Amino acid sequence: MVSNTIELLKNEIPLEQESVVLAEDTVNGLVLVDIINGFCTVGAGNLAPRESNKQISEMINESARLARLFCEKKLPVMAFLDSHQPNKPEEPYPPHCIAGTDESNLVPALRWLENETNVTMRRKDCFDGYVGSMEEDGSNVFVDWVKKNKIKTVVVVGVCTDICVLDFVCSTISAKNRGFLKPLENVVVYSNACATFNVPLEVATNIKGALAHPQEFMHHVGLYMAKERGAKIAKEVLFDAVEKV
Questions:
Q1: What are the structural domains of the chain?
Q2: pLDDT tens, residue by residue, 7-21
Q3: Beta strands, E only, 104-185
Q4: How far apart, in Å, are the Cα atoms of 174 and each of 180, 225, 234?
């Protein structure tokens, strides 16, 4: 039933993806959204997968590969890490990614980023990394990162495609369109390095307050809505059409 619905969805709202070429003569930045244990490592928390998941595993592998390449080129990387205080719930979800626990740390495949000088780590306590970058004095860590590094294209990867990734992309594009993020010109979402979670209808109906969340369906919707806002959706990312990443 779900597979038939997904095919119907893809026929009704087809998603055209493209090969995105990153010019070597301008600055490109990479943003990793919430690729942490609490969302990606089996059994790590209330919102972690219960069993190995192909889409999430592929997202981690592609994100790690891309991050390695950006670091080799000494390009700016920003990693958002969902981190919540125990007394500040994020409804409608159960407690998750509590600050100070391993839930809120990068997955093992990305922990090496903590030692890279070109990487900026930002812990956030909300869905949207753009909002989560705001400081009490009115400054914004993400905005400052873009301006300081003179980033023209930002590539976005991570989880969840239809929640934190989408929220961040929408806010970033709105800010760019208002002229708050100069010289940023392009926001790219790399589809194979994004993922979301899976809660089938038959599971959701047995959990009070839960919503069905078919993974492939919502992943497609998240990508489609990001493109609808003005993001480029990449099936592959290339540097000057020579080196496939």
A1: 2-11+22-239 (3.40.50.850)
A2: 888 889 999 999 999
A3: 119-124, 151-159
A4: 9, 14, 20
